[in-house]
Write a structure and sequence with these properties.
The complex is a heterodimer. Chain A has eight helices and eleven strands. By secondary structure, chain A is α/β, with parallel strands linked by helices. Chain A starts with 8 loop residues before the first strand and ends with a strand. The C terminus of chain A is likely disordered. By secondary structure, chain B is an all-alpha fold. Chain B has a single domain, classed as Orthogonal Bundle (MetI-like fold), CATH 1.10.3720. Chain B has nine helices and no strands. In chain B, helix 3 packs across helix 4. Chain B is globular, with a radius of gyration of 20 Å. Classes of the chains: A alpha/beta, B mainly alpha. At the A-B interface, loops of A face helix 4 and helix 5 of B.
Amino acid sequence: MNFSGVLPLSFNDVSLSLEGRVVLDNVSLDILPHERTIILGPNGAGKTTLLRLCHGLISADSGEVCWQGPQAGMRSRRQAMVFQRPIMLRRSVRANIAYGLKFTGLSYRQKKERVAEVIEVTGLNDLANRSARLLSTGEQQRVAIARAWALGPEILFLDEPTASLDPGGTRAIERLVEFVSGAGTTVVLTTQDLSQARRLAERIIFFHNGKAIEIADAKSFFMRPKSREAKAFLEGEILWQNKTDYKGLQLCVG
Amino acid sequence: MIFGADPGLGEVVLLSLKVSCSAVALAIFFGLPLGAFLALYRFPGRGLTIICVNALMGLPPVVIGLLVYIIFSRAGPLGVFGLLYSPSVMIIAQLLLVLPIIAALSRQHFVDLWHEYGDQLMSLGSNRWRAVPTLLWEGRVNLVTVGLAGFGRAIAEVGAVMIVGGNIDHYTRVMTTAITLETSKGNLSLALGLGIILLLLSVFVNLGVSLARAVTIRQGV
């Protein structure tokens, strides 16, 4: 396969502990361009930490996080992230999106054009002049995605963007994610929502207790999960962490 | 007394406002960057510096007055400027009094703001240094309260301005020193009148800021 940008992104035996707890445990995986990757797993599996590590907000205790593409040196400019709780600045939606471009080195005119374009294609016209802080969480999350996408990233990380949203809000976010992905941005999204994973995934990385238990294309993952943990998760059993021994796996059958 | 046109009284009130507002403006100018620096940067001795700044918040005004007096007295290191017993040195004394308050209180606000916005700003390509103007703007509603706390301290203190200003009529007499003088002279009604003006001033400043805060929060800007 020919790569032209900063991707693929490889993890080689990456481990990380936070406050004495092993959050990532010898994780090895590849994120390939133009594939919608869903990182699926229960709460506390290490999904958010994985994204923060990908995005460069934290660094690993051991192992390698390696951007393999020919433009890897540009990686910080070619990626963007949307956080679980949208952080809106105290200004209008338009100004929030414009703020995202503040550090890009674009000229005033280019920024203005880009902001107008992003507002138009992401369907934020009605909200553009409203104060971002006063929007609903779902609307704020749409603005956050638009703000991240305005940077023109090659890869966009989304950390549970629909957590605590109602079905309507979730649908709006998923449409936007499909649009972003269709426009050529590689999307990596974490979720614990199985049906969302079914709707969006092209590739699944199943996480549990800080380990990438199973990596497979979406179809075969949902048809024939290989690991015991993934099978249990798909069957709707509750996976949780053993608080004393993170290497152990607890299943609640019921 | 208050509403009667006493020209001396107006002069005293105006000088009080001039000295305290100047001191607070300067303290904000130096104190907010200092607070941001202590909140966002790791350097050796940071913990100790924060403890010192916090401790300085409680420094007695008379002690500040004494130190500034020594520094600016004829024999002191800055005596050549001849600033002692002038409004300028009163501003300097109050600046030193208010600076630790602004720095210490704003440091805590910057810690909270960074906790909220840090990841997002870093993600957008900012860094701790470049984030400061954004954090200032985002936190302005709470940072105004910090300025207010500083103003309260400055306008109400008497020890420092008394020592370095000397309570000279028509020149360095401010409300608090005038109240002290009139009380010791037994002129209680004038002292009380000045006290009421001081109180009203405080109430109005707080009221104005609270209103501005409420409007800002409601508009979400």
